[in-house]
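Late entry, protoporphyrin IX containing FE complex.
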Amino acid sequence: MSILESRFFYEFLGAVSAVGVIAILVWGKQRYLYNGLRSLPSPQGGNWLFGNGPQILAAVKAKKYFKLLFDWAKELGPIYVYWVGNRPVVILSDPKLIENTIINGMKNGSLIRTERSSKAWNDISGPILLGTSGTEWQWRRKAWNLEFTPNAVGKYLPIIDRACDRIIEKIKAAPSGSPVKADPLFVELTMRIISCLLLGVPVEKNSSSHEGPPLDVPRVYQAMSVLGYRFLKVAIGEKMWLKYLPTKSAREYWEARKYIEEFLTPRIDLALQMRDNPDKDWSEVSPLFRESMLVKIAAKETKYDRAGLIAESIELLIAGTDTTAHSLSFALSELSLNPKVAEKARNIVDRTWEKYGGITSESFKELSYIGAIFKETLRLYPVANGSTSLEAKQNTPIEDIFVAPRGTSIYWSVLAAGRDERYYHNPEELIPDRWLRTEESQTLPLTIGFGSGLHRCLGEHLSLLEGTMMLAMLLRYFDWELVNSGSSLENLQHNLLVFPVDGMPVKFKQRELLAPNRVS
Ligand code: HEM
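Prediction complete; structure with ligand written out below:
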């Protein structure tokens, strides 16, 4: 019997044709559904089947995704759409439009965070702020908010001061004139601070912390990088179950998790014991640990169990380290390239230092220009774009400009938003004054680098405090120049976070202060 006479052949042919017809119908329906968006500008170079998908994938692989969104915004304007196959991703880059879209859309429920990235966050180690929404997110955020108000983080100034001092000592100890990579130094700074505040680990390198293992900055950083990279892979499509296969990357993931969990668990168990036995004598426990956020949160929010606290602590270590560290590296290099701004900043620091004998909570109020440098840096180099795009749950009008049909993904380019000349005059220039109490500052969008809406950054005030303190101290003690001049700022990696690929090597020179007693 020839194949043409076989019943099976015709059944098979019928099934294939049916699948083909269904696929064409789905394709046609999607095309029709999103047709209205075809009037928005769209990048060239896509193909009829995959749309701009191949360009996006290539950019992610080359670690230039945010750069691509920025370049397209320059070419196509503040609202454009790229296509992955038939599915649209609308990109916004007007800072106020981004802010309003996120705030209003999430408030009235028409826009929700995409399930994939939420799952990817929660898959790092368990449900966390970044991966939850609705009531699950609310109780978590409520618990942490109080620990991160400007007042609450202001109390940590002496700890931040000591951590910055350690970095100053490290730079002083480096051989004179030799390049020092600034970015890893700032990673050490921010990790020590968040570990101290969160877990009660002293910021001083050699002091022990008998509540758990010591903080080994490079190893914790390595483990965090593995977990962060895994988030990215899952967020862009990798199947979550792949972590159970015997592959190299799965092994690395489990090793990283084990290492971080061993660092955290003894502390978390102790915090839970303290919660369960409040009347026991805990005087053996160090005051730093008793005052840590972990102990306070465990006592305050009994919904948190061991696994929940481990997951949230990992999130805070990840969110609180690289972001501020890279922003400091960018600020350092911008100051080096803008001597007038640096000079003005240094005069303010010197004056304040002489008046108060160092940086104190009182003197901090006079350092708003330094804080403005940090904000301005974040405008020019927003290290985090916002991790989670939104999806229209229903047909959603975006400020009377267009309607996003149900299922449309909406994302944004903070890089392009920060350089929008309709809001920021001379957008390529470092102009800290624009953030100070001027007429212009009243109309500026918020520092959108910290995100928008409900999930806006929890650590914003802490980060500004760290940034201001570290920059003020560096200005006080050193002159510096970039080893690779402006190219450090051009050679950036743009995926989950934006950072300088070369680690920002800098040559520091100790300042010859007029009188030695000026250095306190
Ligand atoms: C320059 C420094 C920082 C930048 C640029 C930054 C940026 C951001 C952005 C853009 C978001 C929103 C993410 C989203 O929409 O999905 C965010 C959220 C968050 N940030 Fe930051 N961040 C910084 C520092 C910190 C610090 C120091 C901490 C903590 C110690 C922190 C903890 C968090 C947490 C926990 C969230 C999630 C909030 C939520 O989902 O409710 N961040 N951050």
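The pocket of protoporphyrin IX containing FE is lined by residues 129-130, 141, 194, 315-316, 319-320, 323-324, 327, 378, 383-384, 386-388, 449-451, 455, 457-459, 462-463 (CB under 6 Å). Will revisit in the morning.
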